[in-house]
Amino acid sequence: MTILTFTLILLAGAYLAGLLGSLTGLGGGVVVIPLLTLVFHVDIRYAIGAALLASIATSSGAASAYVKEGITNIRLGMFLEIATTIGAVMGALIAVYTPTNTIAMLFGGILIFSAAMTLRKKNEVALTQGSRLSELLKLNSDYPVNGKKVAYKLRNVAGGFSLMTVAGVVSGLLGIGSGALKVLAMDTTMKIPFKVSTTTSNFMIGVTAAASAVVYLQRGYMDPGIAFPVILGVLGGAFTGSKLLTRMNPKVLRIIFCIAITFVAIEMIYNGYQHKF
Amino acid sequence: MKKIFSKHYWADKDVEQLVGQMLITGVITASLVVLIGGIVYLTQHGQGGVPDYRVFKGEGAGYTTFSGIFKGVLKLSTTEIIQLGVLVLIATPILRVACSLFAFILERDKLYIFITLIVLCVILFSIFGGIKG
Lengths: 277, 133
Description:
The structure holds two protein chains of two kinds.
Chain A: H1 3-24, H2 32-39, H3 44-69, H4 74-96, H5 100-118, H6 132-136, E1 141-145, E2 148-152, H7 157-174, H8 179-189, H9 194-219, H10 224-247, H11 251-273
Antiparallel strand pairs in A: 1-2
Helix pairs in contact in A: 1-10, 2-3, 3-9, 3-10, 4-7, 4-9, 5-8, 5-11, 7-8, 7-9, 8-9
Chain B: H1 12-45, H2 61-64, H3 66-74, H4 78-106, H5 110-128
C-alpha cells in the first residue's frame, strides 16, 4: 500500500469515527483507537497518540460554541480541571508500566461503560439547595433554557472531585477524553443538569487530554503520517455530526451505534486477552 | 485602552466570548497547518510505501522536541510542519487556561486565580517535569 492510499482510507475512516463519536456523544477520540488498531493494525501506542489529538480537536471545536452560548460553567470546569489534569499526568506515568494488552482490555471495558452511559436517563432537575462547599467555591450558576436563565446549585463537591481524578487517570492512561466518567461525576454525583454537565465535561476534555498529550508527544507516540489524516478526518466528521444533530433526534441511531460499539469493545478485550497487541 | 483594564469592562459574558473565540481560532489554525503540511507531504512521499506501524519504534527527536520540530519547519520539511500543527493543537487548550487566568486577574477573583495557577502548574510540570519515562 502506498502512503497516499493509506492516508485516504484513514481519512475516510477517521471521518466516520468523528461522525459516530459526535452522534453517539462518545467523543471524537474513542472510536479512533479501535479503528487504528483493529482495522489498520497500528500499534496501540500510536493509536493512543492520535486519539488524544482527535479528542483535543473535537472538544475544543465544540466547546467554543457552548462557551459562547453561556451553557458551560467555566468556574466549575476550572476547579475540576485540577483533578483531571493531575489524574491525566498520573495516568500517563502509569502507562509506561502497563502492558499494551492490559491497556487494550481496559479500553474495551471503558468503551462498554461509555456506550451504556450514553443511553441512561438524564438528569434535568436543577437543585435549589447546594452544599456549603459549592457556595464557598462559587460553583453554583445558571444556564439558558429556551431563552430564560435557570439557576442551579450543586452538591457533593468532594465526591465529584474524586471521580474526576479517576476520569483523569483513565484519560491519561488510555488516551481518550473519558467524557462518560466526567459526566457521571457531574450528573450523578454533583446533581448538575445534564446540558451543563455534558458541555462542561466537553470543555474540560481539551485541557485534560493536553496534560497527557505533552507527555506522549515527547515519548514519540505521535506520528505525523497518522496524525494528519486523523485530525482532519475526525474534525470533519464531528462537524457534520453536529450539523446533523440540530436537524434530527438520533435516538434509534444512538442505540444501534452503541450496540455496535459494544461488539468492537468485546473484540478489543478478546484480542487483548489473546495478547495480540 | 484604559477601559480594557477596568474591572467592569470584562463581564463574565465577554470572557466567555473571548475563550470561545480563542478555542476555535486555535483549532482552525492547527488544522490549516496540518492540512498544508499534509498535502505537500503527500505530493512528496505519496507514492512511497507505508511505514510499518504495527511495530512501535517511537518517533525521533525531530518529531518530539520543540527544537527538533522548529528546525524541521525552517527546512520546510513536511512532516515537521504537520508536527507543528500538532503542537498548535495541543497548545490551544493550554492557552485557554492562560486566557482564563488573565480574565480572573481582571475580575480580581483571588480564589480562581489560585485554582487556575494550580492547573497551569500541573500542565507545566507535565511538559518540563521529565516524566516521559
